[in-house]
Amino acid sequence: MTGELGQLALCFALALSLVMAVAGLTGARSEAATARAIAHGATMGMLVFVALAFGTLTYAFVTSDFSISGVASNSNTLKPLVYRISGVWGNHEGSMLLWVLVLSLYSGLVAMLGRGGERLTSAALGVQGMLAAAFILFILFTSNPFLRIDPAPFEGAGLNPLLQDPGLAMHPPMLYAGYVGLSASFSYAAAALMVGEEGWARAARPLMLLSWIFLTCGIALGSWWAYYELGWGGFWFWDPVENASLMPWLVATALLHSALATEKSGAFRTWSLLLAIGGFSMSLIGTFLVRSGLTTSVHSFASDPTRGLYILALIFCAIGGALALFAWRAPKLQGGAAFEAVSRETMLLLNNVFLVAACASVFVGTLYPMVLDAMGRDKISVGPPYYVATFAPIFFALLLLVPLGPMLGWRRGNLKEVLRALAPALGLAVIAALVVLLVASPRFLTGALAFAMAGWLIGASLLDVLRRRGARASAFAAALAHAGLGVTLMGVAGTTLWRSEALVVVGPGELMHVGPYTLRFDGVTQRQGSDYRASRAHIALMSGDQVKSVMTPEQRIYPADGQDVSVTAIRTTGFQDLYLALGDNRGDGRWTIRAYVSPLAPFIWLGGLVMGLGGMLSLWGRLRVRATLPATAAQPAE
Amino acid sequence: MKRVLFLLLLLAAPAFFSIAPIPARAAPAPGTFSDPAMEARARNLQRQLRCLVCQGESIDESHAPLAEELRQLVRQQMVEGRSDRQIQEFLTARYGNYILMRPPVEADTYFLWAAPFLVLIVAGGVAIFVISKARKAAPSDPL
User: Fold this and answer.
1) Prior bond to A602 cis, omega within 30?
2) pLDDT in tens, A2-52
3) Total domain count for chain A?
4) Whether B97 contacts chain A with CB within 8 A
5) Interface pTM, i.e. ipTM
6) Which residues in chain A have Cβ-Cβ distances shorter than 8 Å to B137?
7) What is the CATH number of domain B30-102?
């Protein structure tokens, strides 16, 4: 019964999304007030029905209803409740339903916030409706999570054990809340092109910020998960799936900056529209890469191309349609604000130049091997060395300019004055570089450069905060977000350059050394978990002859899935991680242990969190002052 | 009597050792070089080579049996005195460019390597154009 209910709800949602599309677009004409009211109602109705479908699927997972194929192949009665719930989106069908749920939630927010005037909102809802219809059709035709199997199996196949982790349970919803949320900016931009509304950048900003915050935190969470779960101490692998989330982030970051200029001084009006279209396009392309199976291999895509081709067609329609609209309407928009070469506008433009180039590096690096292979030319790998050679220098150049932006005035700034004001930050940068060269060993010039850059970013943020003291909280958003970049950079440099490691085989009672730590291996015990068996190593962290604490990395075997997963043990001081992973059993009580000491590793994700907080501060300011400020009022820049 | 005592002592010896053991140091994992410079070189090489059966992992960080074989192969060739370049060439001849984490610069990959910088140059050019247009529109009194 539940399966049919879910499917029915999804069909109703489809009908309502079509109503939303037609009524919303009709409502873009000023006299069609009834159509606008219908579009609003349809949006809320669609949200309710999509939520109902999602709730139904969740209920089926929680109650282990194995007559539903999605549940049977992705869950198991032995799974703890939280992983039965996260199993809902731990598979293709369910994750697409989550995709549509997030799209509906953002549609609801567009309707409820109703910013930028009735016509703009209505047209934006129309575009959201078209997107929702396309994706619900995709689910119903190619990825139906409610399909029945007869007879129902007695037990389910289980969730991929790698996915059974609190970090990864939260990761997809957060990431989707980010990159599907970019649909709101896309719809606002398309709507602005249709109705010729100029206030779209202001209207779209709260949801733009919200999705950026989720995307930032989602990426940080994914990276943290990879760090503690994969057992190699790495935090970013330039894997196509990771890149699929990084590309929308880069464009969304560019959009946040460009739209700021559009809103404050009317500059880059058409460019911001293009970025709003581009940001969600990257989300769609990312979805295509991950969902079509292309990331695994070109051949797994070719063997079952239905889903991939559908999304590809959808991408062509969505991006092509938006770009055609752009080409047709954008030239009619009033453009060309006036500003001097030395101004905040110029800095925001340069920000965009570098972010777009950085995105090009990730885009080409991800897609090029697939294209080359599909053309039958050569099979190549594009690994970290490529990104170190292309992405890193471009991004580094961007970071160099970051502190200048918030200090320069709109329209016309004074570079000399700003550089003088930033002198203490430059001093901090030099000190940071010297300290690194003197203290850290081995000595790395790149390390000194990275810390100089971090000093420059954080120092400038402190100066910016001092300069704006007394202003409302949201004025400090940029300083916080930019300081976060510096914090992450220190973490990345510390971990990649100064990580020490030990790969050893130890027997009970034996000592091992890694970095400044001495560890004693006290053997391995067996443990029965909820749906797995674990070999748990007991490793004492020594301080002289005293045991300071005991760390317990594990190897878990999930019999239902026939897979083993390593669970690392991490002890952090906040400035340095001691990271242990249990390897193979070598017989006679001897085991392989991998131990890493990663200086500043926690800074990587702390920086992401700080960036996210910066976004939240800005969003909070936006929601607090909503409707109290006229559209052109000057306010402290964020 | 003395003999018996001696024998008893001999028998008891292991017990004494086990009462006051000197903790043994852990052995490095089999296959690792004792020379840290050699080991660092091996690790660096391993990071440059892709595990052919995994998803995006280098052979340095993969559990796959093939990765273990390739690690041994790399180390064996190092012992035989081959240079990093020779080892990479040997593996490329055997497995193709796919094994290299850093794609080679050749006709097929010129675009791959150039694209980010081309975009940077084009975007930079557009930015200069936009700025010069915006300057003309701005009132031209000097700062």
Assistant:
1) no
2) 788 999 999 999 999 999 999 999 988 888 889 999 999 999 999 999 999
3) 3
4) yes
5) 0.88
6) 336-338
7) 1.10.8.640
